[in-house]
Design goal:
Blueprint lengths: L13 E5 L14 H20 L10 E10 L9 E10 L3 E10 L4 E14 L4 E2 L4 H11 L4
Antiparallel strand pairs: 1-3, 2-5, 3-4, 4-5, 5-6
Length: 147
């Protein structure tokens, strides 16, 4: 399991608005927990496009999601004004660790926190590969991290 950075000490440079739809709601009139994974997918894609400065094609990119963990702090409701905030917090040889959160901008309440790991992946051999040096360089420059 990835080590968890302290969310309240994390500064997010990438944020994307998330529209809650009626079809996202469960019988308790909260956004279904599984649907929230889609919101984090949106945030992850938006983050990578911003950092790599190119449109992400998930059918060809040599990164794959290998771990996801969610902490639900408060229900996400239909009228929440959500943003998905994303940040890579650690770069390894074959993987990167990301933290994301769904935050209601009206109340500044963090509703859900997501910890995930992306791994380098060769789509031909279906094997783990090192993270491209270009990706590492761009992430380090963008986030200002030295790992």
């Amino acid at each position: 399991m990835p080590s968890k950075p302290l969310v309240h000490e994390t500064h997010f440079r990438v944020s994307v608005p998330v529209q809650v739809r009626m079809s996202d709601l469960d019988p308790f009139v909260h956004v279904n927990n599984g649907v929230q994974c889609h919101y984090f997918d949106l945030g992850r894609s938006f983050y990578l496009e911003k950092v790599l400065q190119n449109q992400v094609d998930w059918t060809t990119i040599d990164l794959v999601l290998v771990h996801i963990e969610l902490d639900f702090a408060a229900p996400v409701e239909f009228h929440d004004q959500l943003v998905c905030e994303s940040k890579i917090v650690e770069i390894g040889h074959k993987s990167v660790k990301m933290i994301q959160q769904l935050r209601d901008t009206k109340t500044n309440t963090v509703k859900t926190t997501c910890y995930s790991v992306l791994s380098g992946f060769d789509r031909t051999t279906h094997q783990s590969i090192p993270i491209q040096e270009e990706y590492k360089r761009r992430i380090r420059e963008f986030e200002g991290i030295d790992c």
